[in-house]
Amino acid sequence: MVVGYHLYVEHIRDLIDSQRVITSGMMGEEQRCRAALEQAQDGHTVALISSGDAGMYGMAGLAMEMAAAEGFALEMEVVPGVTAACSAAALLGAPLMLDSATISLSDLLIPWETIVRRLRAVAEADLVVALYNPRSRKRIHQLEDAVAILSARRSGATPAAVVTAIGTSDERVVLCTLATLLEQEITMRSIVIVGNSTTCVIDGRMVTPRGYYNR
Fold first, then answer.
1. Within 10 Å of residue 6's Cβ, how many Cβ atoms?
2. Count of CB atoms within 10 A of residue 142's CB?
3. pLDDT mean for each 10 residues of the chain (215 residues)
4. Which end of the chain, N or C, is surrounded by fewer C-beta atoms within 10 Å?
5. β-pairing verdict for 21-24 and 2-5
């Protein structure tokens, strides 16, 4: 049995044979998790689908929390996937070669003040950062605030990038700078990567040197 967000299930439609499929729309995470747990409790083998990696802003944690809190005694396996940050990095070059952080700019579940504190810590630590959920139709200021926080600690010439709809026919890769980042088309299907003080562009590729090559 397959359970997941309807768009993610469509991405793996070619892998689904005769399995029963349960889908729901945006904001239906708890509903999907509970459906998966109930079906598994009834003896079915269930695949709960996430995008990227299930343990990276995905469904694995919620499934484990809900199972423990609501008394589901189940065997669970987390199947590793490829995160958006790693997929985007591969398309860009090698921007995550050194220490980095991932931060979601969605404040639907996390107070914005907490996210701001984390952004400031990342800026202070000079970490490369991958920003998930950067912008939606209703959430505009979050990315603007994040860019302002990062800009206070690093040059406007710092390499940055926007990768949208990774792995689909709509995939789009844009290499820019921190100063021009907000001029780019950025949606909820985008991931934004901002380099650190050593990140550079080599032959059109975004690279963060690790220090091996010192000539």
1. 15
2. 21
3. 93 91 89 95 95 93 96 95 96 98 96 98 98 91 97 98 94 98 96 98 97 80
4. C
5. parallel
